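Notes from the 1:1 (GR / supervisor)

We went over the backlog. Supervisor wanted to see one worked example end to end before approving the batch request, so GR pasted a single chain during the call. The sequence is below; no edits were made to it. Supervisor asked that the structure be written out right there so they could see what the output format looks like.
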Amino acid sequence: MLLIGAGLFLKSFTLIMGMDLGFRTERLLAMNINLPELHYRTAEQRLQFFQELERRVSALPGVQSIAFANRFPLRGGWSSGISIDGVGETNLSPDSQAVSTGYFETLAVSLVRGRRLTPADRLPGPHVAIVNQAFARQYLNGGDPIGRRFRRGSNAPWVEIVGLVNDVRRGGKTKDIRPQVYLPAAQTDAYPVRLADFAVRTAGDPRLLVNAIQQQVWSLDKDLPVTGVRTMEEIISLSVSAQRFQMLLLTLFAGVAVALALIGIFGVLSYGVNQRMNELGIRVALGARPREILGLVLKQAGVLIAVGVVLGLAGALALTRLVASLLFHVQAYDWATYAAAVVMLALSGVAAALIPARRGARVDPIVALRYE
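Structure output shown during the call:
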């Protein structure tokens, strides 16, 4: 039962780690800079702060690109109801983000069609946005979104879609892909959220630049806290920590269970061989060959293993339903995992039985009969 459980969680965790997030996480450092309302009352003031910080940090050695947004993937977000020009459905609520022009370059999000955001996408220019492929699939029946318009309310300005980018799993590896709208951070009247996240992609280890970036923040405002400083790989690791712990725990228990099973089989068969030593000696004296004695002992081991396999399968079939909700893209009745557990247990049992079986096959009939 524990082997099957461990196998299911191991397969689930392997699938989780193999999921494509839609962006690159290596050498990417993210942090949170909450600008207090008292000193940064308007969205324009907050935008100017992050633009100046971007200018200063970009001059640091080793910095390749910089981005800021209200939130980066796996660090939160917001959604907003919209209406699309020419689409009758009104219950549309994609995830939305306010992002800088360097957002897609820094996260290495691929452009599918159209264009990325540019410095020209600012007030008082026309409102623009970029959407992901899920937006086109779910809201436009897979049609081309370039040139389509939407708005967040009846009094809000129309926003033209100018680019289509690859899907990103903003919630992490285990979350579904949702429709996504990216609004230019420089068009401050298009979003109600506050800019707060800052990210840097570096040529080397990004953690080496943490102090330098903090100094640049404090040179602009010495009272600002810089929190949530982590590499994106650390954030990903934390997001799957629960699944990793479940897998490691069950694997540990399964290993202990297999070890106990091997000790049990070895002990029972060793005791059985000792008890039947005279019988085995008589069999050898009457002409039984060593391989026949070996087969006799292994047959007894096979019965023990078979009973254990049957009982374990029955228990696993009943109990794996309880952990089905914890699995990711793996069925509780994954027969390949069941078969692998059976084979592993059977081979381990046979290996444990070989020592007493070979000892029984090499019995000296004279010694065995004298013992009798």
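Supervisor's comment: The longest helix spans residues 241-275.
Batch request approved.
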